[in-house]
Amino acid sequence: MKTFRYERPDSVATAVAGVAAHPGAAFLGAGTSLVDLMKLHVEEPTLLVDVTSLSLDRIGTARDGGLVIGATVRNSDLATDPRVRAEYPLLAEAVLSGASAQIRNVATVGGNLLQRTRCPYYRDVTKPCNRRSAGSGCPALESRLPHSPHLAVLGASPACAAVHPSDLAVALTALDALIEVTGPHGTRTVPITSLYRPPGDAPPDDTVLARADMITAVRLPAATAAWPCAYRKARDRASFAFGTASVAAALRMTGDHIVDVKLAFGAVAPVPWRARHAERALTGRRPVGHVLRQAVDAELVHARPLHGNAFKVDLLRNMTVSLLSELAGRAA
Amino acid sequence: MNATGNTSAAVRLRVNGVVRELRLDNRTTLLDALREALRLTGTKKGCDHGQCGACTVLVDGRRVYSCLLLAVALPDSDVTTVEGAVRDGRLRILQRAFLDHDALQCGYCTPGQLCSALGLLIELAAEGGDGTAPAGAVRERMSGNLCRCGAYTHIVAAVTAASKTIAEGTP
Ligand SMILES: Cc1cc2nc3c(=O)[nH]c(=O)nc-3n(C[C@H](O)[C@H](O)[C@H](O)COP(=O)(O)OP(=O)(O)OC[C@H]3O[C@@H](n4cnc5c(N)ncnc54)[C@H](O)[C@@H]3O)c2cc1C
Ligand code: SF4
Ligand code: FES
Ligand code: FES
């Protein structure tokens, strides 16, 4: 690890100014992602600006009745919050499906959303990687070996096919969460559905945020509160593993018809994947088997599996159809 | 705000009930502060990347991986390692259960398993309920502690039994 300075500011403005003024500076949440990458020399900040003392660790009610989750709320506190469990249970399920108790006990909401990919080449500085260093190449895609399950089947580019690892981000994408950001030029709100950048040919930027943009809160619109919703995650072992594929879904029925549905996929694309084609194909329909399968396929026709990971498309179809029919049963 | 250009800092921690004032390079993790600076070697270094649980300690009563936390970012925190946790009656019950159930082989993961199990019992108490952990819940909630010797079935049995003993003993 390279040496670095450490600051613990007491206001958001000072934190943002601190990072803006120093080209090598980075925000520090709990460090469970950043410190790991610093040990690997993937990240080499010269100044860490700790955001965990900024009193952003509360969950409150927004004016529209939705929830406002502070950026430094710990993952475990988010998952055990009574309102989250009652109104947005899929969020608690997604958080609890990720990492381990020891990590969730310290990991912050902001840090979770901005954790970097777990692609093994990205984490190994002895290998080239376009996402670490644009134009250096992508050993994952160039390999002659069957592509491992960690790569994307949706939304990859020829430059990078790494998946976004966060479970929380997938649940928030389904819920249309809004991300509150403060940067050197003031505050703004970014819908989570436009926070993450598809890789294109310039993959190093995971998100639309600039270096000194700080996440201060996540807002959940009241509209989706208390819809039947759930999170499902398939992984290599039963617990403490990143996803191979995951699905977040929430839906509302009138009579025997779906009137509204939100669907997002995780661990299958470089960004949390909002399945809008499937949503359109489900809206106004009765949730019977063939309708669900056709709707999911309306999304999965866009899948471009790589040699060796086509099973993820079938996995995703099966998981999504079974989750939607379970939710429809609950909503009816 | 400290803007002195220092890459080291004075860090004050309360470790096992004793206030310790340390001068540490900012790169020092809590794990290295415990093992190297304070010579508390009960806490083990397995992977050093948050993947195995050998380094589990309690910070302000919550179980954490000490290898991923920077000591400089934990000012005035209350840290409990396996050496200090023995003063908690619940840890002694866990130790007894580990012996009775043969829940270790080489023992390298054991301090982390014990601190993690203590953290789990604290979480269960905070969640209400009767405080006991059925085997399925223990398996899920202890998943952050790997055991290279594969003593898992015995560890799950030990933690399940200890949670029962403690729940029954609590008035
Ligand atoms: C072994 C292991 C297994 C894991 N498994 C899973 C899993 O299954 N699912 C899952 O979702 N996650 C998993 N994780 C990842 C874990 O959830 C993240 O490490 C954690 O959420 C990051 O939070 P943090 O506060 O520690 O972030 P940090 O490490 O402090 O920060 C992460 C990044 O976010 C930036 N940052 C932090 N806060 C802010 C802010 N407020 N504004 C702007 N930038 C900010 C930092 O500069 C850094 O770039 C796993 C991690 C490990 C080590
Ligand atoms: S898939 Fe992306 S992150 Fe992985 S090696 Fe290729 S460019 Fe790097
Ligand atoms: S040494 Fe910390 S988790 Fe392995
Ligand atoms: S007893 Fe050997 S690693 Fe667990």
UniProtKB/TrEMBL annotation, chain A:
Domain of life: Bacteria
Oxidoreductase recorded as keyword: yes
One MF term in the entry's GO annotations: oxidoreductase activity
Domain FAD-binding PCMH-type: 1-225
Record InterPro entries: CO_DH_flav_C, CO_DH_flav_C_dom_sf, Diverse_Substr_Oxidored, FAD-bd_PCMH, FAD-bd_PCMH-like_sf, FAD-bd_PCMH_sub1, FAD-bd_PCMH_sub2, Mopterin_DH_FAD-bd
Keywords per UniProt: Oxidoreductase
Stated name of the protein: FAD-binding molybdopterin dehydrogenase
Annotated organism of origin: Streptomyces ruber
